Amino acid sequence: MAQVDVIDLRSDTATRPTPEMREAMLHAPLGDEQRREDPTVLELEELAARLLGQAAAVYLPTATMGNQIGIRILTRPGDEILAEESSHLFAAELGGAAVHSGLSTRPIEASSGRFTAQQVRAKLRDWGRFHTPRTTLLAVEDTHNASGGSYWRPEELSAVIDAARDAGLKLHLDGARVFNAAVARGRPAAQDARQFDTVCVCLSKGLGAPLGAVLAGSEELMERARLEKHRFGGAMRQAGVVAAAGLYALRHHVDRLASDHARARRLAEGLAASGVGVRLDRVETNFVQVEVGTDPPAAARRLAEHGVLLSGTLEPAVFRAVTHLDIGDQEIDAAIERIPRALASVAA
Ligand SMILES: *Cc1c(COP(=O)(O)O)cnc(C)c1O
């Protein structure tokens, strides 16, 4: 067996900055980001806006903050927002929509994280009546995390965007992994992302920066986003030292996401060939959903003993493996060998 250490497939947030990325951080020109005097942050914002087909962008510490600011500047307290029920926005941000923006939330049920124009229309309320909250925003997540990294097909996106616009809704894209989606679609992220009012991208997932995110939109919206960023406590100082990592990632780590997808596919097929329950049809980007049997805690223990870390999903008997920058072919070979042995030892 190849000599590799513990294989951390829990998330694509597990990456460490590469030597080249650290080099870029070391030499980045710096200034006061809060005063818009950090050249590296400004350069990152400009490149991100361009890659997303938007006029402007705001550098932020996290994509959670990006989502929260995005929905904040597109709504008013008392509004109702639509998103898929297991979306990060609804299921993983501690009720931020209610806390920060006074919004009520209306979930759309969809097993793949992707829904239809008809489903959007069915959720709209007749807010001309006295009692009903105004539905003003639709949020879309691409790729969709909880369903295992599924990506929106261009025609599906156009259909829900048209339905939302017809109903006068604003549109927010939680594109934490939008570059994975773009690579899977085989067309530039801008082509789809430009259709949204606001787009949030995480730089510390598959792109491999240690932290950071970007919110993009029109000049006017991003001016408001900067105020909210300050209010949320996200305005920074010599942030270029980390923004340099994000800038490096946008320049060098977008196209390589295709390798993560290919490795996820190879891992899934290798596991399936060894009799592990894997949802091959669900492997669309860099996630693999692995069935672990009737004793998930024991499975997690055994996997760790065999030197593989997976993480849980919304389904207790399904774990996920996520490929990323720090997972090479050797790690995939080792995982294909270790995971079946670990799971067999649970069953025994
Ligand atoms: C990880 C993630 C976020 C939040 O990103 P952070 O930078 O960790 O705050 C938002 N949306 C989706 C879909 C994610 O996967």
Helix-strand layout with pairing:
Elements: E1 7-8, H1 19-26, H2 39-51, E2 56-60, H3 63-73, E3 80-84, H4 88-91, H5 96-101, E4 104-108, H6 117-123, E5 135-141, H7 154-166, E6 170-174, H8 178-185, H9 189-193, E7 198-202, E8 213-217, H10 219-231, H11 240-252, H12 257-273, E9 287-291, H13 296-305, E10 308-309, E11 311-312, E12 318-322, H14 329-347
Parallel strand pairs: 1-10, 3-4, 3-5, 5-6, 6-7
Antiparallel strand pairs: 2-8, 7-8, 9-12, 11-12
Helix pairs in contact: 1-11, 2-11, 3-10, 6-7, 12-14, 13-14
Bound molecules: pyridoxal-5'-phosphate.
Integer-rounded radius of gyration: 21 Å
Percentage of residues assigned to helices: 40-55%
Widest sheet, order of strands: 2-8-7-6-5-3-4
| Mean pLDDT figure | 96
**Using DSSP, what is the number of strands?**
12
Can you summarize the main beta sheet?
7 strands, mixed
Q: From the helix content, strand content and strand pairing, which structural class follows?
A: alpha/beta
Characterization of the model:
The protein has 348 residues and is an alpha/beta fold. Helix content is 42%, strand content 15%. It contains 14 helices and 12 strands. The protein has helices spanning 19-26, 39-51, 63-73, 88-91, 96-101, 117-123, 154-166, 178-185, 189-193, 219-231, 240-252, 257-273, 296-305, 329-347, and strands at residues 7-8, 56-60, 80-84, 104-108, 135-141, 170-174, 198-202, 213-217, 287-291, 308-309, 311-312, 318-322. The strands form 3 sheets. It has a 7-stranded mixed sheet, sandwiched between helices. The protein is globular. It starts with 6 loop residues before the first strand and ends with a helix. The model has no long low-confidence stretch (mean pLDDT 96). The structure holds pyridoxal-5'-phosphate. Residues 62-64, 67, 88, 141, 145, 174, 176, 202, 204, 213 line the site of pyridoxal-5'-phosphate (PLP).
